[in-house]
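Molecular record:
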Amino acid sequence: MPVSPRRRSVRATLTGSASALAALSAALLGTLTAGPAQADEPPTVDQGLLLTVSGAGNTWSRGVRLSCPDIHGRHPHAAAACDALAWARGNMDALPGHPQACTREYDPIVATATGTWHGTVVNWRKEFPNGCTMDAVTGPLFRF
């Protein structure tokens, strides 16, 4: 059976439309699935550390952001805290501390550090029996 010119025109339009729709869908899908060219690389700017200290049962809390070097002046002992972090190579459990004699008073304090230090993600939390013990272990880092 011969195909009329009108049917050929409709068939060509539909075929062309389907091809265009497929190309557009592929382009949109590629745009939606492709992330930034450097999405897997860590941020080049060091975000610093958010340091917090809180009392038993979160009855009180205080915090400060520390960047090394501390160009904003947020931490009262920033230079010493940055030196301690550098000495420990960012390992919060290897801080040089400030050895001192402490009482056995039990007044628990929780110290946390979250953020980045020299491109390394830090998510650290530790409970100490009292503030003196925390200072003896962490040195100037949590003196704020």
Remarks:
- The first strand starts at residue 48 and ends at 55.
- Residues 5-33 form the longest helix (29 residues).
